[in-house]
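In the previous lecture we treated proteins in isolation. Real proteins rarely work alone, and many bind small molecules. This record shows how such a complex is specified: first the sequence, then the SMILES for S-adenosylmethionine.
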Amino acid sequence: MHSDTAPARVPASTTGSATTTAPPASASPTDAPTAPSAPTWDPQQYLRHAGHRARPFLDLLARIPELPTRAARIADLGCGPGNVTALLTDRWPEAHITGYDLSPEMLHRADAEYAGPTGGGGTLEFRHGDLADWLPEEPYDLIVSNAAFQWVPGHAGSFAPWINGLRPGGTFAFQIPGNFTAPSHRILADLCDTPRWRARLAGHGARYIHILEPSGYLERFTELGCAADVWETTYHQLLQGPDPVLDWVKGTALRPVLTALADDEEAVEAFLAEYRALLRAAYPTGPRGTVFPFRRIFAVARKEA
Ligand SMILES: C[S@@+](CC[C@H](N)C(=O)[O-])C[C@H]1O[C@@H](n2cnc3c(N)ncnc32)[C@H](O)[C@@H]1O
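The predicted 3D structure, ligand included, written as tokens:
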């Protein structure tokens, strides 16, 4: 059984491309602890580990079956800086591809680097869209998402309308981190909940509790009448440089904390110093680098043709 419920939904914006609206205001230090609002993203920091982050997307792509048409309509949900969205054009150069994201910073980067016509006569564009209420506004051949649904509580509640929005024979495919009990995330959640930080950061380190196990996604897809292919992989990533795990999470899991403390540089430094020391103990650096195991869950659902 699934406890997640789908919020009210409206079709995604269909006009204009990347937005440049101001990022959300940071929480005031005196705010009572609340669930964090959308964090501010830093594409440059995120892309520092672009190779490791793109690998699961390529592994996901390898399992996506042929689409109903070569001139396919494709949506990439939570497209980030657009570098993995652009990989879709290698396989489907004739496709019309739209990347949707909530972050003005990410959309700006994606738009500047990748938007425009593709080599095979297709197009690549980026639009503002909130996955919490995004709905397919036209029939899609592929709806794909890489490393984004962990930010969207109740995402499994959207599978029915998204799959409903696929053409017969179309595919819905995603990859989601399954590492919320890993030391990197457990330590972060625990640190946010210590007496020193609780008033400002409680809840800011535990974003992933709504992720289903692979069996949950498989069950959801089969309930919806799809042919399902679900698996998990733990990548034993060998990272280089000083404090590489901290450097990694600064691009992702730490965004809510960095956003909440953005107006207080001293607090950011103090928090990072504590977190850095704990990460060094949890992920010791060896002679060839720092091993950062990362579990990811993959799911591919094909709608009946
Ligand atoms: C870890 S990044 C992944 C980016 C890209 N898919 C990739 O694989 O490199 C997560 C992305 O999800 C976006 N995101 C988070 N919550 C979202 C929401 N509710 N609606 C749309 N995008 C969201 C973030 O802005 C961010 O760009």
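Summary for your notes: Residues 41, 53, 57, 78-80, 84, 101-103, 106, 129-132, 146-148, 151-152, 252 surround S-adenosylmethionine (CB under 6 Å). The CA atoms of residues 131 and 152 lie 7 Å apart.
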